[in-house]
Amino acid sequence: MSTRPIVILTALNLEYQAIRKKLVDPELHRHQHGTRFEVGRISNGRSRVALAHVGTGNQSAAVLAERAIAEFTPAALLFVGVAGALHSHIALGDVVVATRVYAYHGGTSEDDGLKSRPCSWETSHAADQIARHIGRTGAWAHGLPDRSPAPQVHFGPIAAGEVVLNSKVSGHAQWIRQTYNDACAIEMEGAGVAQAGHLNGALPVIVIRGISDLTDGTKETTDRARWQERAVANAAEFAAALAEEIGKEDKDGGWLAAKSTTRGSTMEKHPVTYNIARDGSRVGVQAGTVYGGIRLGFDPSPPTDLAGALAGFRTRLKRAQADGRLDEETYAAAEVELTVADEALRAKTPQSKGRLTLALKKLRGLISDVADLAAELATIIALAQALS
Fold first, then answer.
1. Within a 10 A sphere around the Cβ of 311, how many other Cβ atoms?
2. Which of 55, 303, 320, 360 has the most beta carbons within 10 angstroms of its beta carbon?
């Protein structure tokens, strides 16, 4: 079982309470800036969960998701709550698990109308596979009250914006239908947490929503009929099963990289071997069998001085920008995080290590497509985490 917790965030108090009922012996954990988490174990399970209430909207969700990630270094982050259905085959009480999150409010307004410029984030393949397996087996629903019909689990995109949609015919509704026709549900926080996960080295983020209304003008009626409570109870039940399964997968502390398969055989936890390349760049190799004239060897002198490692990384970052492997915007954002890391390292306050690690993780998300930089930064992050 994993030693890392699963972070679960909610926007509404009733959503928070639904998750809290799933925890055994929750203990209060206060963040230095006031955010309160409750940390407990999943009932009838062993996974640890850190739970927080973030309020409504993508902005607050993103900020507190970032805070939770820095505080707990979780195995995954789940956002659990209610949503409105966008298709008629999705019923009240059903559960929607996002395969992609659209931040649908991005656009440009022109003479002939609003043109969409969305951002979107896909759910990680490993998390999606676990969630689908749980949905197929149906065992997740055994703890629900005996109702007929049983809630269905749907997998598909979710649209996350900044308004509550309660109409099928408004201009807003028509625009979403035309532009995001594949979206199964609509809500207000998923884009924020998805962005936070992306900026932290592609941390798996799974958005789980119970359907509490049909976005057809009847929201007040369904709310009075207590569909919010029923829908979030279903979502919480699914989330608890998912958190428990991820905890089991993460028993070695690295569930996304524990195994890889090639030519029909399974390779278990092969160590990453570093080789010195041109200009001192560090290249990570993970393999079972290596064919051809490739000579592997450990770096005889891995960096031990964090300040020196950061200075060297800044030089190689500039070189990557100059040779076109990093665009100007990414390079500028990476420089900002490097500066924050340098300042945190020099400050030597009780909060410095957290600021340093967070800046390096943001940096990792920015340069993850450049293999040699990503491998070198992994070593630097390990050095930062070893600081006393």
1. 12
2. 360
